[in-house]
Structure formats: C-alpha cells, structure tokens
Design goal:
The protein has two helices and ten strands. It has 182 residues and is α+β, with helices and mostly antiparallel strands. It has one domain: FomD-like (FomD barrel-like fold), CATH 2.40.380.10. A seven-stranded mixed β-barrel has the order 1-2-3-6-7-8-9. The chain is globular and about 45 Å long. The structure holds magnesium ion. The site of magnesium ion has 3 residues, from strand 9.
Amino acid sequence: MPESSSEIPPPDFSRGRPVRIVSTKFDGSPHYEYEALLLDQHGPVLRCWIRPGTRWVGYRGEGVLMYPFTMLFFTDGRWYNVMHQHQPTGARGQLTYVNIGAPATVEGDTIRWVDLDLDVLRYEHGVEVHDEDEFVEHGARWGYPDDLIARVRATTAEVVRQVEAQAFPFDRDRHIPPSSAG
Ligand SMILES: [Mg+2]
C-alpha cells in the first residue's frame, strides 16, 4: 500500500476509462451519481477525473458541474474519498473536499460508496468539518450503530490531521494537472 504520494506518479489526463460514480445514503436512498474517467489505479488507489460539463443527478436535483476535480477512491477499506479541485473554487477558495463514508466498492464500470454526512474541507485559509448537524440528524433517523458513529468520528479527526499536514492522499498538487498546482 502506498504510504506516500511519491510512490504514485502524477495522473495522465490524456487517457482514461469511463466509469460511473454512484453514492447513496445509509438507508440506500440516492446521494449523487455522475460519470467520470478512471485515470489510473495504483494498488488500492483509484484516481478519477470529473470534467467540466459533467451532468450529475442527486438528492438536491440535477445539474452540470462547472469545475473539474480529481477524485480518489481506495479499495483498502478507508472510510473516506477525496475530491481535489483543479482550481480554488467558490468565494473562499475550496481546494479539497473529503467525503467521510463507507469504503468504496468497484463493480465493473461502477464505483459505489455510502455517504456518512460529515465532510472535511480545505480552503486556502483553513480546514473545516461540515455537516455535523446532518450526521446527528441522520444518525437518529436511520439508527447509525454506535460502532459506526465511533468509526466516523475517529476517521474525521484523523482526516483533519492529515489534511492539515497535506499528507497523502491530501497532497492536492500531486493529483491535479501541473498547470493548476500552486
Ligand atoms: Mg456531507
């Protein structure tokens, strides 16, 4: 298992295999669905490119993504996935968005994962945890088991530490086109 990104070469954005990324909530209801290009796989690390103009459908409706990002999934049982924006996005300059969720699974051309509400966001000026209220609300509504709640909490705390350190896989510059890094 790669311990640092130095073992993974930069992605080649000139080729890829179409895949579908499908996420649900804990109760199986839809979260998001969209297409991506699977750029590469190094051991347990899958990297996808989500291009501008990608259509998405989700629990809040549907639309077209405006800004490209690289999304990393892991087949070694990590309880998160990572989205690195190719450009700082939004008024506050979002750089990285980490979804806390059940480990991804790959079946044919589909990557699936289960969203567990909490997100860790890195902006140009800091790191924040979002959607605490949703996590508490959904935990009560759907009966998140105690061990799942403990796992999500521990994972979130560890992800915050790693994002602050910009350690792999949160070393954004190494997963986006070189012209975007900085
Ligand atoms: Mg969330």
